[in-house]
Amino acid sequence: MSVVLDVENLKTHFHTEYGLVKAVDGISFNIDQGEIIGLVGESGCGKSVSILSVMQLIQTPGEIVDGKVMFEGNDLLQHEANGPEMRAIRGRKMTMIFQEPMTSLNPVLTICRQMTEILELHLDMDRHSARERAIELLRMVGVPDAASRVDDYPHQFSGGMRQRVMIAMAISCNPMIIFADEPTTAVDVTTQAQLLELMKDLVTRLNTSLVIVTHNLGVVARYAQRIYVMYAGRIVESGLAEDIFDNPQHPYTVGLLNSVPRLGEKRGGRKLVPIYGLPPNLIDMPPTCAFLPRCTYKTEKCGKEPWPALRQVGDNHYISCYVDIRGKQ
Amino acid sequence: MKSPSNEQMVEVKNLKMYFPITRGLLRRKVADVKAIDDISFEIKKHETLGLVGESGCGKTTTGRCILRLYQPTSGNIIFEGRDISREREGKLKPLRANMGAIFQDPFGSLNPRQTAGSIVGDPLKVHNMATKTDLDDRVAELFKLVGLDPAMRDRVPHEFSGGQRQRIGVARALACRPSLVICDEPISALDVSIQAQIINLLEELQEKMGLTYLFIAHDLAVVQHISDRVAVMYLGRIVELTTSEELYENPLHPYTKALLSAIPIPDPKTEKTRTRIVLKGEVPSPVHPPSGCHFHPRCNLATEECSKIRPTLHDVGGGHMVACTRI
Lengths: 329, 327
Description:
The complex is a heterodimer.
Chain A: E1 3-16, E2 19-32, E3 36-40, H1 47-54, E4 62-71, E5 74-75, H2 84-89, E6 94-97, H3 101-104, H4 111-123, H5 127-140, H6 146-149, H7 159-171, E7 177-181, H8 189-206, E8 209-214, H9 217-223, E9 226-231, E10 234-240, H10 241-246, H11 251-259, H12 300-304, E11 311-314, E12 317-319
Chain B: E1 8-23, E2 28-44, E3 48-52, H1 59-66, E4 74-79, E5 82-83, H2 89-96, E6 99-102, H3 116-126, H4 132-145, H5 162-174, E7 180-184, H6 192-209, E8 212-217, H7 220-226, E9 229-234, E10 237-243, H8 244-249, H9 254-262, H10 268-273, E11 314-315, E12 321-322
Parallel strand pairs in B: 3-8, 3-9, 6-7, 7-8
Antiparallel strand pairs in B: 1-2, 1-4, 4-5, 9-10, 10-12, 11-12
Helix pairs in contact in B: 3-4, 3-5, 5-6
């Protein structure tokens, strides 16, 4: 399979009045064609900022300070954020599905207008054929009675249906990559199951790559082929989904997996092992490993050396940690 | 671990809670939102009863009715042997010292201008349960109980993290030594790595103080972990009620089965072998719920009869209650 997106050493910093926040601090990842990737981490770990940086949707006080985003042979960071090159890519070759469909759809425009705008702009369709295509897309994502619902406004749709509309918009130009930022966090579990199945079917059919950004490890377990785990602006572990879940090597990943209750566990059975302490404040971080204060495997070396670089621990399996925790769990 | 006794703490009988929808200048009633549509269940002493369902199914309303924050439309709520469903406000006050509540949003449920110490101490003052001199000690004791440093009592809520704020909420709920605590989605607003801390805290406190919990949440995995018995709600009605093991091993109601299969498990191997029941359509509006069984339009077992007859919650053996005519 060929790599469609290759991100190298991406750094996005925010200059706030309290100090410098290194929201994304040197992350590298790549996406193959047709692959489903999971980007996992807690709130504030920089997962959303990473994908917004790839699409160059970072606003002041944020700034992409370093890195390369290789897409179709070009470094996207060489283009102006609002220049014609980026505008031709956003919404056409790379699209996004946001968490809250109510705030990402325009409440004063009909669904039809919002969908045809993309088709007219990127694919030069005329109004009539764009409308036909919009109806077809809504049918594809399972909006019942699409021909009449296309003229409705966002508030007339339920949360799950709005998210379907977002998915329809995201696939409307047959993009190469879809970034889904917490696509199912705002909906109920049964709707979540519907939406995830739908997204998986669509990307398989269209051979599109999909990046699912989420804090829920369960969501990516079923669908993602590869997973990146982020903590405090860096990738701390990456690998194939089976390796990450069966054989996690970074103390943070181990902690995350031990702290969530699993379905089918008996009352009074396994006691949850929380990760002690708090997620770090990203302002003026120390140069050492950011997970250090919460880590149960730390050694003397961890407190002296800078944040460890990613090292290989298996086929396609990398961690950013000095300690070998195998056998200690 | 304290095992649940057979004594009842709360009994809810045929509870209904309808909210009127009004129109026009005269606020004429045009319809009802049937938030709770005739439910009955009981909570035993020292037990944790989980209440699970999707948004809008009436689980929060149920909790608020028991707290008597709402006046139920009809039905009875018997708390420690006393029917409180029609009790007047004045008589409710002493009762409320016996019930605690922990809310979902640790940001919205704490007054931003009050110090943490006074938030936790207020219930004691309101119920005259502490004198001026021992108030400080009591508050310090409560802080320690939930794992907070009493030295932080003079800080205001925004100086705490989400998990710490939720601990303040827990301390406030326990201030008057209640026998029943209603936990309404106490962990869903917290970060994944913090959730386990609060779950463990609630479990420890239950053991230490012999508390009874009504644990309301949408996440079945969490509810199952903490509860002795679980009630599954759908559109204002309880569709299944049984022990949490039985619910997982032998779910009977088609909705429970779909709900269980929809919950992702963080393990790719298990995930790939599981069959997922994807429900058709969406939860209908509680203003115009479907006739008969509320679940019939989405059910794969539904027959003609299901659209006509409302199934009652009946025991199918061993206290496993299910509301389905086909089972």
